[in-house]
Amino acid sequence: MKKKILVTGGMGYIGSHTCVELIAAGYEVIIIDNLSNSDVKVLDGIEKITGIRPEFHCFDLICEKITKDFFSKHGDLSGVIHFAAFKAVGESVENPLKYYHNNLVSLMNILHNLQDMNNPLVFSSSCTVYGQPDILPVTEDSPVKPAMSPYGNTKQIAEEMIREYSVSNSQFRAMLLRYFNPIGAHETA
Question: Which of 27, 130, 151, 165 is catalytic?
Fold first, then answer.
C-alpha cells in the first residue's frame, strides 16, 4: 500500500511541483487548496506529467469544521506538507490582518488535527524570517531578525508555533523549509 501524503496548497507553484515529485517517488498524493491563488487546471498538468490525477479537495483550511472533517476521514495519512498560505509581501503590508488570519489559523487547524495522528509536518516557511541580514550569504545558522513585512512575521510566528508544539508533544516531528526565490520549470513545460 502506498503512503499517503497531504499537500496543502498543492495547486500552487511549489506545491504542484512537489506533488509531481511525490507521485514519481511512489506516494499517493492528496491535495487541499482553496484556489485563491491557483487554478484547478493545475490538476491537468500534474496528471499529464505523472499519468495520475491526485485526489483533490477544494476548501479553506481556516474553516475549522471542514478541516476537522477532512482529517477524521483521512486518518491513514503518512505526513503533511503545508504550503497553503498567502504570500505577497506588498499585499501583506496593505492588509496585514488578512495574512495573520489566513496563514496562522490554517496552521493552527492543521496542528490541532495532527495531535492524535503523530504524522510529520513539513512547513513551507520563507527566507523573510531572516529580516535584513547583517552578513551575506545567509545560511541556516544566520540569526532570525525582525521581519520586514506582515507576511514575514506570519512565517516567524508559524515557526515558533511549530517549535512550541514540538516541545509540548514529544511524538510530533516537523521540518521547516526556508525558500529563497524559487524558480524553475519542469522539463515537460
Answer: 151
